[in-house]
Amino acid sequence: MAYAAFRSIGAYVPEKILTNEELSKMVDTSDEWITKRTGIKERRIAAKDEKTSDMGVEAAKIALQRSGLDAQDIDLVICGTISPDYFCMPSTATVITGKLGMKNATAFDISAACTGFIYSLSVAKAFIESGMNKNVLIIGAEKLSAITDFTDRGTCILFGDGAGAAVISATNNKDEAIIDIHTGADGSYADLLMTPNGGTGSAHDALDKEAAGCYMQMKGNETFKVAVRTLTKDVKEILAVNNIETSSIKHFVPHQANLRIIKAVGEALNLKDEQVVLTVEKYGNTSGASIPMAINDIYESGKLQAGELMLLDAFGGGLTWGSALVPFSPFK
Ligand code: UT7
């Protein structure tokens, strides 16, 4: 049987930085409030003509180069995004294959909000283990600034833009394989975090995003409580099922939604500070891009070494959630 190994990581962040100070001139908020309630100090904002696919392509190029594979070696491209280039089609994943000149890949998007990267990872693992694919490129890319209402202080302080990508490949060596992935969803919480209109479920004028309700809306406090409860339960379950102690986790890489959520989950698991990967301060919440951007951060700072075990954990609109036990296994 083939197993799936996490071979490489890459990420891209846009140049423009939007600080809390700047936001406090746009809405009734302050650096002090944002820092205390979220841990965020700044976030990146894509240029006007910079698309989600452009950011995904930059992240993918780095992940490919670090894997040693060529774009033509990739059998499948999955892009987890809630801010695709186009409303219905083509998918952002197919746009990315075009920009990378890929000729041999199947491509599709996954819509699982902040859990998009873990959902993509689970599909990559399944396709590889079934023998259907050998090399899968998974991408989390978001231009959330395009679907953020910058007059709503409850959301605009949270979100940012960016992309991350990873190459997942078949291996016969079980020691370097992804150990387990759990995913879940509960649509009864759909109204906690949504872009209410703009789809075929409602009458809308697609050209007027504000009137169409195409911006993200969130019941922040309720979402916060469900997030802490669900993430803690999910992570405890995946560790127990696989008989793994928290002390064996080298890097806990949670979705970077809010420092207080991350701290609450970390404390419930008795994780030490040095085990917890944090990028929320500089990038804010980049939804499906946040986990690969955070993995890239520890990779580029020399903290992520071959063989080390990562625990990924995410929660987002849908509601969706997921966790994964992933050794970092670059090609030798
Ligand atoms: O990524 C997907 C999942 N997303 C999440 O997990 C996000 C979850 N939610 C959160 O991160 C937090 O709920 C927020 C950061 C969005 C809000 O923090 P909170 O501690 O839950 O605040 P709250 O919504 O309970 O609001 C407390 C107060 C309210 O004022 P009153 O009613 O007490 O007078 C809000 O109007 O804070 C006010 N408030 C603000 N004040 C200054 C809300 N947003 C702001 C703001 N600046 N930006």
Describe this protein with a few key phrases.
Peroxisomal Thiolase, Chain A, domain 1, single chain, 332 residues, binds oxa(dethia)-CoA, 30% helix, 10 helices, five-stranded mixed beta sheet, globular, alpha/beta
Task: Please explain how this structure is put together.
The protein is an alpha/beta fold. The protein has a single domain (1-332), classed as Thiolase/Chalcone synthase (Peroxisomal Thiolase, Chain A, domain 1), CATH 3.40.47.10. Helix content is 30%, strand content 23%. The protein contains 10 helices and 13 strands. It has a 5-stranded mixed β-sheet with strand order 1-7-6-4-5, with helices on both faces. Strands 8-13-12-11 form a 4-stranded mixed β-sheet, with helices on both faces. The protein is globular. The mean pLDDT is 95. It binds oxa(dethia)-CoA.
Tell me the number of helical segments per DSSP (H or I, 4 or more residues long): 10
Number of domains: 1
Bound molecules: oxa(dethia)-CoA
Poorly predicted segments: none
CATH homologous superfamily label? Thiolase/Chalcone synthase
| Bulk shape | globular
Give the tally of β-strands. 13
CATH topology: Peroxisomal Thiolase, Chain A, domain 1
Largest sheet: 5 strands, mixed
| Average residue pLDDT | 95
Helix-and-strand structural type? alpha/beta
> CATH class, please?
Alpha Beta
Query: Secondary-structure element order, as H and E?
Result: EEHHEHEHEHEEEEHEHEHHHEE
* Distance from first to last alpha carbon: 20 Å
Largest sheet strand order = 1-7-6-4-5
Strand content: 15-25%
